[in-house]
Queue: 3 jobs
Job 1
Amino acid sequence: MEAINQELEKLDNIMIKYISALKILETQLQIINDDFKYIKKYNPIEHIKTRIKSAESIIHKLEKNNLDFTLENVEEYINDIVGIRIICSFPSDVFELINIIKNSNIIKVIKEKDYISNPKKSGYRSYHMIVLVPVELINEKVMVKAEIQIRTMAMDLWASLDHKLNYKSEYGKGVVSKRLRIISDELNKIDEEMTELLCMENNLRIANEGDVV
Ligand code: 0O2
């Protein structure tokens, strides 16, 4: 218990750099969204959520991976001490944002998981990136790890409900998981239909602009 308390205290001491990284990331993504709105006249980001992982959740994740709760293990193996979730309207917005982030000189992408092209067996769809964000504190200049999750509203709806009913539940396995997989496919169809509608609307607008000229 004494050892855990010591590590918890150390964790508290390093949180400032993670919280700072999260602030930088959120600001940079808001800048991208504003610029997008200015250039393309619409905003690809519906909303952004930030998250700081609780100490309890960090310890649980280490245990799951058979790792002791030490500050070294936290910094080395927990990539999502802080995270940001970006919710977009359409799948095409998700992929456009991914490219913008990959081209950033501020955010450095070090790991990617494309659960949109390759959904998880559970039905989970989302694009994950582990990034490094430069943080300048008074006595320290460091690159800090953070997680970015990007997905559509439909993917987010599914993930939030799955998180409550299945992913973090001891009871949700079996029939609940099966039905959630079916719902994930249904929501994917909605994303596909919305993409068709977006193309239709684009074509109609271009034709209309042509008429005006
Ligand atoms: P919580 O409570 O949401 O924080 P890595 O990042 O590569 O070191 P990790 O963390 O296993 O390894 O990677 P992965 O697969 O990218 O998952 C990271 C996060 O994605 C999870 O964090 C969840 O938030 C989310 N996630 C992954 N799979 C599922 C799923 O099947 N359903 C739902 N609802 N969310 C999922 P945590 O820490 O596990 O949980």
Job 2
Amino acid sequence: MQLSKIGEFGLIKKLRAKCKNIPPEILAGIGDDAAAIKQGNIKILITTDMMIEGIHFDPSFTTFYQLGHKFLAVNISDIFAMGGKPKYFFTSIGIPKNYKSEDIDELYSGIFKIAGKFGVAIAGGDTCTSKKGLILSGTLIGSADRIITRAGAKAGDGIFVTSTLGDSAMGLMLLKSQKSEVRSQKFKNKNRNLKFKTRNSKLETLNSRSVLPLIKKHLTPEPVPLRNTSKVSSMIDISDGLLIDLSHICDESRVGAVIYKDKVPVSGELVNTAKALKADPLNFALKGGEDYALLFTASPDIKTTAFKIGEIVKSGRFIIDENGRKRKFKPEGYEHFKRK
Ligand code: ADP
Ligand code: MG
């Protein structure tokens, strides 16, 4: 069977079925943002994520500093998605022979910056050569008093997201379309003086105000934990896109969902840029990945600053558009093996 047929999620489902005899101390295993393991009174969280050159990042428009930042940030986001606190990070790297040690210094300065911000210690890793491209594999250990999985959503719960969506996907599209212009800034700017040159006159007028924040969100996402999780029934971070990640909650919780298109929050920067490009910002917000916002369900009386975008129902997955029309949604977004 071709992997492109079953996709990343079909493959994980097959692998999950093979992993039997799960001991009782594994509170959450394959199928969540992180594994949760009980050791005495302590609940440990463990998550692992890879970043591969050419798949997850393009060094022609990503500095090593930004890459280091994102490498740890995406792992932190998975710990936050379980309601946890990140603690110890293991960094395994496969490096092509032609890379310089300064490149790796830059990578680690990005890692250390965000590690310092979130109180994470680097506790180990592995180093080897790679035949082609830089390979990063990070494992982050955390802990939580109350574990929140993807499996607790109940009919009647509200569906919430913690921030605007779609910025990162638009940022990536802009970077890809302007590849050569950004290339020359490699190493020089870190994050501080990020510049964006464009030959698209429509975008030029938006440059500093709208375009840069979108690019920044893509290159250096900043995960934000949910402070009060007492009424939260399920949670996931949005790494592959709202529709895919909400589908994961529906699958694991065995429920359905209804979301309202006009309630999905989008930033002014995304709206302005999409307008200039004659694109639909909601398309980026629904199907674009890597926002690393949290998507959670909770009893509707929860007091929260998060945006309510819909409700959990017994079955079916629906989106209601701005004219009140209801249609089924599919888990469209980013899935490995399914894209070229
Ligand atoms: P996330 O996007 O939050 O990082 P993934 O979609 O990568 O989550 O993974 C979903 C679940 O599948 C996780 O529990 C992860 O540990 C598990 N998983 C992914 N790949 C494998 C694999 N090759 N073997 C076992 N479990 C896997
Ligand atoms: Mg996740």
Job 3
Amino acid sequence: MKKILVTGGAGFIGSNFINYILKTRKDVFIVNLDKLTYAGNLKNLTGVENHPNYTFIKGDIVNDELVRYIFQKYRITHVINFAAESHVDRSILGSEIFFRTNVLGTNILLETAKYFGIEKFVQISTDEVYGSLGPEGQFEETTPLQPNSPYAASKAAADMMALAFHHTYGVPVVITRCSNNYGQYQFPEKLIPLLIINSLNDQKLPVYGDGLYVRDWIYVIDHNKAVELVLDEGKIGEVYNVGANTEKRNIEIVKLVLKQLGKSEELIEFVKDRPGHDRRYAINSKKIKKQLGWEPDYSFENAMRDTINWYIKNEKWWKEIISGEYINYYKLQYQA
Ligand code: NAD
Ligand code: TYD
């Protein structure tokens, strides 16, 4: 039985991971440590609260005493560190919390893993650590890190610390660097849920700059299947890129959402660009395909259609976020 500390498991990707893994496997026990920031939402985990192989702890990865207590109490054998401040625009407004959670928090998890000794530490990183591409080429695992936003810089610093802990102390670290995710339970500050929800509300769709920025999109379940493979079979000390070869210009995504929802392109509003905006991301995932046999299962067209339908059907989920109601839900259930 793997006893896995999943951090940030109430966020978008972490909650999808927990829902998926508890549905598909019996050989894991999950301790979900999440601070429940604005991005953490326990409603993402409705249905697993009482699962015998799951427990939730509200807390901060920067709290070293709490982290030590969890490792000891649950005899943690594996860590998957999803916890992060994850939004580039917020990091531009204020970088301190990004440094605290993404760098210091990862450092505390690594120190604790070193102290107790574990079997594997999976650090969930991002393709944004590589910086921006011109019109040609792709990020490979050997591409030098050149992060541009405070978010990307904090993630790159965490990666470097994780690799240093492996090199110096033998902590069994593996890193995944994935491209832009989309799917159910994504917080509506990120492009795709924001477009869907604004369209449904007949509100303007803000497109930064010329809208020709390129992102390489992957469905969240495909990402999480890669995380699962890395957890089971990833080679210690290695970095694995994860992406589904789905480059799209932002404006193409905007038009696709409007089309599926039968809304007018008059809702499009070109707005002031994000400072330091990375032009293009494209990820080469040959290594994980060749070494671990990973392949994405979902086509962009089908998974986007399902994602849009999910937001249509789950209006209550996002309306509570927009109204701020879900914050009260946490306060009632989990006093700090
Ligand atoms: P998210 O913002 O939806 O969720 C982050 C979660 O971490 C939230 O539940 C939040 O409450 C929790 N958290 C934040 N600070 C914490 C702290 N100090 N202690 C404990 N918990 C804390 O983010 P996401 O989109 O699910 O991303 C998860 C991970 O995947 C991040 O590490 C991110 O860098 C990485 N990533 C995201 C994408 C993407 O497209 N979203 C792509 C590649 C990599
Ligand atoms: P985002 O979802 O914030 O992810 P990231 O910046 O980490 O790639 O943004 C995806 C792309 O969409 C990025 O090029 C910025 C752009 N964007 C907009 O044009 N309008 C928006 O309102 C948002 C949130 C993003």
